[in-house]
Amino acid sequence: MPNNSEIISNVTIDEKVRLQLGALLDTMIPPNDYLGVPGAGDNEIVLQVVRSLRAASLQRIADALEELDQSTVGELNRTFSELPQHEREEWFGKHDLARHELVRIVGSVTLQCYYCDSRVLESLGVEPRPPFPKGFEVQQGDLSLLEPVRKRGPIYRDPG
Amino acid sequence: MKSEKVDVLIVGAGASGAAAAWSLADTRMRIVCLEQGEWMNPSEYPTSRVDWESRNFGSMGINPNHRGRDTDYAINDTDSPISVANFNAVGGSTILYAGHFPRFHPSDFRVRSLDGVADDWPIDYTTLEPYYDENDRMMGVSGLAGDPAYPPKPQIMPPVPMGKSGQTLAEGFNKLGWHWWPSDTAIATEDYDGRAQCINLGGCYTGCTQGAKASSDITYWPKAIRNGVELRTRCRVREITVNGSDFATGVVYYDENGEEHHQEAEIVILACNGVGTPRLLLNSTSSRFPNGLANSSGLVGKNLMFHPYALITGVFPEELDGYMGPGVCIWSQEFYETDPSRDFVRGFTYECSRGRGIVGSAMIGLGYGRIPWGSEHHSAYRKFHKRLAGMSAICEDLPEEHNTVTLDPSLTDSNGIPCPKISYTLSENSEKMLEFAIARSTEVLKASGAEDILTECPIAHGGWHLMGTARMGTDPEKSVVNDWGRSHDVRNLFIVDGSIFVTSAGVNPTRTIQALALYIADSMKKRIANLFD
Ligand SMILES: Cc1cc2nc3c(=O)[nH]c(=O)nc-3n(C[C@H](O)[C@H](O)[C@H](O)COP(=O)(O)OP(=O)(O)OC[C@H]3O[C@@H](n4cnc5c(N)ncnc54)[C@H](O)[C@@H]3O)c2cc1C
Ligand code: SF4
Question: Model pTM?
């Protein structure tokens, strides 16, 4: 799994790779107008994903993206990234790309970046802010539920 | 380089080292603690950032092999289904711990007498009770008095909120007529001793930015330092040195710049945890101690106990708490004590947990094949979001000599010190207990209304409780330290961490580790005039 602990700010990728990655990520998590959420191929999220990937793995990812892009040409006459969303999804499912090494490598980083995006958080009813310093309210709970537990009496063994 | 001799040298500034240092400070002896890690800065903990969850997987992760901090040492865990989780800093692993804070039960100290397995401890619950109480005050424990699974114990602060998750699960336990109780936690639910109360950030596993969780860097250490203890950080101890009379003379350590020092001391106390302590003893070889120091019994590094865990998560139809609130809420000890009608001995605790974070929910859903990629992703995710709650079953691990910490023949840390290797297998007893625990938790989750149940067993990354590798006992042939923590072989060498556990009980160990450290420090103070006799 890539070590995405530190954001690597000086990583850049060329436009072609960015588009290829965006097409793949949009296939994995598509935009949804009804929910008001971007796809994971949204520019800002792609950039975040690239920053979070280990610099060393980027060339490998770029090579794998190019391979994926070309894989559709024979059958569909267009590269993967040129296909419309529904055709990409169809291809993704038909070829079980969820198991593809490329998807596995970018998958967890994508989830980490996608689910930190403020538009996504807002659509889930979550305020896009760090937990600290405001914190959260959690209901205390009803301690009278303990009545039957108390009634039963001690359950520990006394070794004497 | 040689430094001025000190009276007491403690290695390790985690849960136990901190407690021992604080207790011994009132002797006015010259006390120095060497810690390989650094002071943490709570304002830099992940929950002060929107992307706090991502850092669980990086520099604040629980696995030293993946974390990439130069203050860590690698641990070869390829021969174990469970990998070690720890943290190396002032505060030790309490920086990351969840703050679940149960005591052992009276029966946990009498395992052989009651159940005919393992060994009895040379001390009992009553011996530790005053030290439990003292530690509870120092750490600040929250909980509800009157738990029928325990003898009476004091309540210091009210329990952490049950939340919707705790309440939902409690109703399930009640339907089955099973025990449950609000968990005891090392989390301040009120402002306590200079610490601010918990504000339900939910990031306890990555360090508490609020300072509500009692990690020992913010509880014991400030007081110990005020009372004169010197804490030196980024000092990694390589070995303990001895003289011809089998007394420890001090330690050799490397400072931040890799410079080697010899620190002389009258008394050496080890507090490096159940992996770090045997590693250090095994690295301390000499012509008198060719198999490692304090190892005439051959038991240094043997009997490693982890607590095998099963994680059982329910997916509920309604929204619960999500990640908000401390991870801990209620526990159940319905199956804690041995029941002869079952096919295993001893028992376990269910520690109920709230949901996962936003990212964590996606990861778990994807991992279990419940959340797909593609257009169904969003609707599937929304069935997970804030709808997870469940429990982990923390099973008593019995001591077995073939579960070991040894030195890896080739792996070394950044100072060239040999690293530990762990070899561990799950016993048949543990496997049966885990199976039983999953079956019963499935019943209670269903009774609570869960519509889908996900299980992980054992939790592969869950080697966070490290015990038994330098056990205590009265017989020098069957134990490493005596009944007050002093090495049988080296009379000015003490161990205060979880290594000295005889058995593991079915609860988290830190409250007992710290009570033991206070008990050992107190035993030393009481015997100060004839400590080495
Ligand atoms: C993710 C996680 C969750 C946990 N949750 C809980 C929980 O809810 N409840 C509970 O009771 N327990 C929990 N634990 C376990 C708990 O943290 C430990 O039981 C406790 O911290 C052990 O105390 P210790 O003093 O033995 O060791 P530690 O706290 O691990 O401290 C040992 C210290 O020694 C230092 N050290 C080691 N070797 C050397 C050396 N050669 N030179 C210098 N310094 C050295 C280390 O850097 C470290 O700081 C959890 C642990 C983790 C990692
Ligand atoms: S939930 Fe409470 S204890 Fe845990 S990190 Fe937040 S404030 Fe700290």
Answer: 0.95
